[in-house]
Amino acid sequence: MDSKTIPILLVTANVGSIFEDPEQMLKIWTEEFLTTISRLDPKFIALHCQEVGGKNYEKSMKHVEDFINMIISSNELRLFDKARVYLDEDYSSAENFTALGNLYFIHESIKDILIWDFKDMKFIPVHEKEIHSGNIEAVVTKEKAKFPQDFFPECKWSRKGFLRTRWSLNGTVFDMVNIHLFHDASNFVAMEAFPSVYSKNRRRALEHTLERFHNDSYGRAPYFLFGDFNFRTDTDGVIKKLTDGLTTTRIQNNKNGDFTKLHYTDDDSQLILTVGKKEFKHSNHQSIFLQDTDAWLKEFDKELEAFENHVVEFDVTFPPSYPFEEKISEGTQYMLTRCPSWCDRVLLSHSAKKLVYEDKPVQYGIIGSNTCMGDHKPVYLRIDLIGNAEDYVINAMNTLNTSENKAPKSEDILTPNSITRYIYIKNIKNPVKIFRETAV
Q1: CATH 3.40.50.1110 corresponds to the domain 5-232+303-327+340-439
Q2: Does the keyword Cell membrane apply (predicted)?
């Protein structure tokens, strides 16, 4: 490893669907993830998960510990002697629960590693392996927030928000932010206009988050923002391109007279495209969306454009990460439910991009192209981080230096309100200290 740079791997993965069939899917998913680690050989790994425990988390949450254990005890991670894992699992608390999971693994070759304490406003050393799970509201080395209730479409409470950590790695300071934004509920609504009402809700939530970081009471730092943004293509634009010259037929619902589907047919009455509330089916669906999508579909991927002044992204040359089939035998094909889109992204603040050593190859892609990984393919970014970036350390901390004795805003303080129990997993060579927080 170059002493001046650190190879790091950033991965975002919506893992909800793999918990629907944990007996098979957890092993398959983990093997693909670990194979990627072996191939890319990073020394700092950040895995951001959304929908930890699955959609039926009350039943599936018990499998999360097995999932974490499979990763942390793997042979591929045997030389990663330090770890920090944060799992927001307390689904009984609707006002706090996000189902987010941030997992960080640090190689033994990295000696200078610190993590930020958001309560005491200082960096603290990182030793050994710690897992924080259950109710993690009082954990001081993370910041977690749920979007305000009025952000939720139709005022329905949802598991959407962000989970942030701050690091000092070989003297370079940066934030790692896991985020989960709102999805599209209906293709019909999504195709009405661009930006759609769903896109506007996502934009509002992301603006809210970035503004919070811009006015950060902890001092600004370069940030890597990666998660399930649920960004969708301009559905109306895609449909118009795919159906140019075709005939549109509305299929009526016999019960209430509303149309339930749109059929687009050619001059020979052959059905080319079907669009329903939760159906999006092209007669040549797999090839048209899996092959050369960057050549035509990418022009309809517009949601990120509104944030060009705040974040950047490396060139996307991989197919849309969502929605893939959840059946193990069909994991290389898209489901016929939504227009395939690049929902899962790794974004960087402009200051964070300056920390990337671009004289070495940057790799941005998906994991498990030929394997079933659930409905979302994990997306990764492999970069080399510049160490000892002193200018950015100073910029990140200057706010703290000028207001060292001032109390931060009360809403940014995580007040301890839980009891911590310590558990050790015995079947791992390096014992892992687990902090399982339970609300009092």
Answers
A1: no
A2: no
